[in-house]
Specification:
The protein has helices at residues 22-30, 53-65, 97-107, 143-153, 167-172, 180-184, 188-197, and strands at 14-17, 36-37, 75-86, 89-91, 111-122, 127-138, 173-177. The chain is of the alpha/beta class. It is elongated, with a radius of gyration of 19 Å. It holds the Pfam family Maf.
Length: 203
Amino acid sequence: MPFSAPDSSLVRPRLVLASNSPRRRQLLTDLGVAYEVRLREVDESFPPHLVRAEVAEYLAAHKASAYASDLAPDELVLTADTIVCLDDDVLNKPADAAEAVQMLQRLQGRAHDVYTGVCLLAGDGRRVVFSDQTRVYFRPLSLAEIEHYVTQYHPLDKAGAYGAQDWIGMVAVTRLEGSYFNVMGLPVHRVWEELEKLGAVGL
């Protein structure tokens, strides 16, 4: 019987997560997706004319481009960037505790938008870039509450100086419009859908 080579289209790409975020790692793990972590330093500045979702998508795509030359043909890298927008102001990671307090003082008592941009770049050149938006409502917070959170939870690695899964999410977030997981750093419903299209996951 003649030997038949396997159909290369049935070979599932190996997922590479290019993120240091423990929340993104946990979400992918909970999703049941196998992956390896690969990290490198990437500049996170962006052109000043970009706004809202454009910023998140640009940063995710920019991060992915740093891995393009090293990807094997059967690899697929996932990069993501989460930003918090108050009106059109982008609140990224605070530089220090004082800036974290200032950010939370601006957010308290108001609604803001969280955007997570995602880029999936395959070693064979296929690329998908998308973003998801969640509107988050904060109740008014006292300065004591804000300072307690910043002191006890050190949210300097989080856009907007807060994590929805932390203490402040429990006491401050009154409601969400959109995906909670998007606020945590990864719109897993969209990620799963796009990974399915690329053949990286499936049941």
